[in-house]
Amino acid sequence: xxxxxxxxxxxxxxxxxxxxxxxxxxxxxxxxxxxxxxxxxxxxxxxxxxxxxxxxxxxxxxxxxxxxxxxxxxxxxxxxxxxxxxxxxxxxxxxxxxxxxxxxxxxxxxxxxxxxxxxxxxxxxxxxxxxxxxxxxxxxxxxxxxxxxxxxxxxxxxxxxxxxxxxxxxxxxxxxxxxxxxxxxxxxxxxxxxxxxxxxxxxxxxxxxxxxxxxxxxxxxxxxxxxxxxxxxxxxxxxxxxxxxxxxxxxxxxxxxxxxxxxxxxxxxxxxxxxxxxxxxxxxxxxxxxxxxxxxxxxxxxxxxxxxxxxxxxxxxxxxxxxxxxxxxxxxxxxxxxxxxxxxxxxxxxxxxxxxxxxxxxxxxxxxxxxxxxxxxxxxxxxxxxxxxxxxxxxxxxxxxxxxxxxxxxxxxxxxxxxxxxxxxxxxxxxxxxxxxxxxxxxxxxxxxxxxxxxxxxxxxxxx
Length: 464
Known about the structure:
This protein has 464 residues and is mainly α. Helices cover 50% and strands 6% of the residues.
């Protein structure tokens, strides 16, 4: 019997759970073990809850900013556990984006009632003070499935949206289901990486087969986006709220957003908006398959110099001269790890150190096992490439095509408000479109797809 066929012992399961708990990885992968909180239990936080639960109506009626102006600065020391910290982060980041983008113009100053608690909660969770993928997706859902099967899209519900539309909820929930489906491969791929040391080909091949099947299921869930989210609703009503403050000068934020902490204190920040590029699951797939990405995803190189406050910008300035080497700017995939919860980020760093299935699969083949490994590995890479092709198709349908319909007039009026989607995207072609994460959208996604496909190629007898 091969090692991968031996049932795990109770001690082994317990040890693995303790190991994954350290990185906040659960039976649901990067999702919580249980559905997130619907309310903060302490009535002290009722002012936050009252606004966020009526967010679409307040934005639609134009009374949201008035309500925020009346908010007190609440302390965060009454938050009792991780679930409550996450809940507070979801509330405050939704209020942040609603405040910045929920009017007839972008607002560049965030009031202390939001800034002060958000900065503290974000620091506690090791996240930037902006609506990340974690806020919009990982911690913003509930499920009516009695078995807590979060892959069941029909039983999922978004806790909060900006627009109140089913389209926006569906957009978030598709990602939740994808994350839940991907949870099935975390343990098996960790076993595969461990099996590299002993050259246990049976275990590695079996794990890669599970991975390939899971990627295909994730892709099938992604294609369900078309069922419940209309491209025009997404582009014109939903997408503007997801934008960050990085590369957003054209939409009215040349310096980003000022986080006002009162008494003359505060700071300007240029941060990426939420995007699926911040999914730890997607980066986990790349890491275990040895897929490397080189793109910086820059939508506007000139703006990068002003991005000193952005997470991930850790380069130290070095004056050019003899013996001095210019520091390498982190790639986009490295930068966005700073937009993941701290434990998840450390998990990816740990997995990166475990070894490379790609290197083993690319060794000169002398046995049938090695041939089977390469074939199985290439099948997994093909599945991940196809997944990224599906993503490109969705981006084309939901962003590129609607942007081409936008009048080239710097932003038209929609229902009495400036159409921010049109303002930031009009007069651009598909090569210039900017993603909510601040990337040069189509070139970045195509390069990412191509780099995935190239991982299975052989170059002059060595892995490339």
